[in-house]
Amino acid sequence: MEPQNLTGVSEFLLLGLSEDPELQPLLFGLFLSMYLITVTGNLLIILTVTSDPHLHTPMYFFLSNLSLADIGFISTTVPNMLVNIQAQSKSITYEGCLIQITFFYLFGCLDSLLLTVMAYDRFVAICYPLHYTVIMNPRLCGLLVLVSFFLSLLNSQLYISMVSQLTFCTDVEIPHFFCDPPQLFNLACSDSSTYAILVYCIGVIFGAVPVSGILFSYTQIVSSILRVSSSGGKYKVFSICGSHLSVVCLFYGTGLGVYLSSAISSSPRMGSVPSVMYTVVTPMLNPFIYSLRNRNIKRALWRLLSRTA
């Protein structure tokens, strides 16, 4: 379905995190620094994995794709925010808003599904180590990433098809720093109750299914850990899963915080504060979590930097 502008509104106003003029330079510097750190860190992960033959394994293949998704995720919202702050403008075009929604839910859902795939990879590696190379072959790994991408694309198109059916009055002010469908449903002139219900249903499907897969994988992993007799073996298994488990808790913990804050708080602006953790801080911390806790990544990164120097 082609998105159509069913209303005369040609642009929206993004109110951002604060309307205080004195805070704008501080916000610009802060978010520019976080964006550059995120892009640089994730690019280093991708370059490290692709340049080192020792890291050409399913685990690091999924990690490089996760880093790519993180770059896309933060690039969907922060650059537009920085441009608006620098130009002292709050506007975003109707088409630009739809594009932002498309990529936001595409990369956000892709992050979630890749974390699920990585949990399955750890489950096979720990519970079926002798069959790991046979099960997690390159063909299956590529297929899992492609399926994750197409499911994420489907998710984003569902959101776009709903938002494009809304009609808006003039001077639409979104109390956020990016176009968020739940906010748009509240601001629409047309009846959006049905779409709001569909949004929560889609969110439950694309949220609960990956979480269930991760919980199942780690339930089996914990069961395998308990059967390991030596403490050294248990520590080795835990170190393998520690980085991924930290990222999972950070990603879904901040996402749950955004959902709860929007459901509990009566102020629409309050939902934008925890969204910063979800959309900006999480992609920024992922490279540090994996590089600081993973000796293979640190060694390969050091070799890459040494060759570059």
Structure notes:
There is one protein chain. The protein is mainly α and 309 residues long. The protein has a single domain (11-308), classed as Rhopdopsin 7-helix transmembrane proteins. The chain is 75% helix and 3% strand. It contains eleven helices and three strands. The radius of gyration is 21 Å and the shape is globular.
Question: What is the compact description of this entry?
Answer:
By secondary structure, this protein is mainly α.
In terms of DSSP E residues, the strand content is: under 5%
Largest β sheet strand count, sense and barrel closure: 3 strands, mixed
Weakly predicted, low-confidence segments:
1-6
Stated plainly, the CATH topology is called Rhopdopsin 7-helix transmembrane proteins
Which CATH architecture is right?
Answer: Up-down Bundle
Radius of gyration: 21 Å
As for the number of domains, it is: 1
CATH homologous superfamily caption: Rhodopsin 7-helix transmembrane proteins
Strand order in the largest sheet: 2-1-3
| Integer average pLDDT | 84
CATH C-level name? Mainly Alpha
What is the string of helix and strand elements? EHHHEHHHEHHHHH
Q: From the structure provided, what is the oligomeric state, counting identical versus distinct chains?
A: single chain
Cα end-to-end separation: 51 Å
Please tally the β strands and state the result.
3
Query: What class would the helix/strand composition place it in?
Result: mainly alpha
* Molecular shape: globular
Q: How many H/I helices?
A: 11
Helix content: over 70%
